[in-house]
Amino acid sequence: MIEKIQHIGIAVADLEKAVSFYRDVLGLQFAGYEEVPDQKVKTAIFRVGETKIELLASTSPDGPIGRFIEKRGEGIHHICFAVGDIEEAIRRTKEKGGRMIDEEPRQGVEGTKVAFVHPRSAFGVLVEYAQEGGKEE
Ligand code: ZN
Hints:
The chain is α+β, with helices and mostly antiparallel strands and 137 residues long. It has one domain (2-131): 2,3-Dihydroxybiphenyl 1,2-Dioxygenase, domain 1 (Roll), CATH 3.10.180.10. The chain has 3 helices and 8 strands; from the N terminus they run E-H-E-E-E-H-E-H-E-E-E. The model has no long low-confidence stretch (mean pLDDT 94). The chain binds zinc ion. Zinc ion is lined by residues 7, 9, 54, 78, 80, 128.
């Protein structure tokens, strides 16, 4: 049911500086910006083969990314797995004793539906599930 690593989320303090590093120094293929207002986050997305790197910058100090950087500094924030059916992934995780942050899927970037697994369940790693939308590129 987990199909691949959909993306890796990296928390950064300065999105423009981070974009120029990942694009110009590492040479990754920049795919665009997207803002997720209810998460108080602006993202920059890079394609890396089948998967993506998602840079995350807080649009407000009290957003989840702002709090993460304050506590733990910049760095890897979460790993996202692509799932075929997100309702099924949530149900199965709970059934097997995992703890979800999101009991219901919510809107992610690029038309995905997403839900987070609690990092206490996943040994300190914030895990995201994403069901890709109908939009194909
Ligand atoms: Zn993500």
